[in-house]
């Protein structure tokens, strides 16, 4: 299993409103190898908000298939400039992890 984290910096006060966009129903729900997505809001940052969007996948091949899918492209497309307004995004970074060990409540 792998975890792909999109660490996203957004304008102060925007993260809580943006977080549900990452967990609403979408084509992601039916992608082979998709396990789950969770959004974590980083605490105690004064300059901006930060979200960590963690996507759990069975393997890297499944994640790459998502990245190349039409659903991914549609979900990451920007609206036309007349509709866009000012973006709350300040930057992002993709981090990839292999899950080495897990313990869950019995």
Automatic annotation (TrEMBL):
Classification via Pfam families: ABM
Record domain ABM: where: 2-94
InterPro entries: ABM_dom, Dimeric_a/b-barrel, Heme-degrading_MO
Signal peptide: none
Broadest EC class assigned to this enzyme: oxidoreductase
Record keywords: Monooxygenase, Oxidoreductase
Keyword Oxidoreductase recorded: yes
E.C. no: 1.14.14.18
MF terms in GO: heme oxygenase (decyclizing) activity
The protein, known as: Heme oxygenase
Organism of this sequence: Exiguobacterium indicum
Lineage, uppermost ranks: Bacteria, Bacillati, Bacillota, Bacilli, Bacillales
């Amino acid at each position: 299993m792998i975890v792909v984290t999109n660490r996203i910096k957004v304008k102060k006060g925007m993260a809580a409103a943006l977080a549900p966009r990452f967990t609403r129903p979408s084509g992601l729900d039916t992608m082979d190898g998709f396990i789950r997505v969770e959004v974590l809001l980083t605490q105690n940052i004064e300059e901006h908000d930060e979200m960590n969007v963690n996507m759990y996948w069975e393997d890297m091949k499944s994640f790459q298939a998502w990245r190349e899918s039409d659903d991914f492209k549609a979900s990451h497309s920007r609206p036309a400039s007349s509709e866009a307004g000012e973006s709350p995004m300040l930057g992002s970074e993709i981090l990839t992890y292999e899950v080495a060990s897990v313990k869950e409540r019995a």
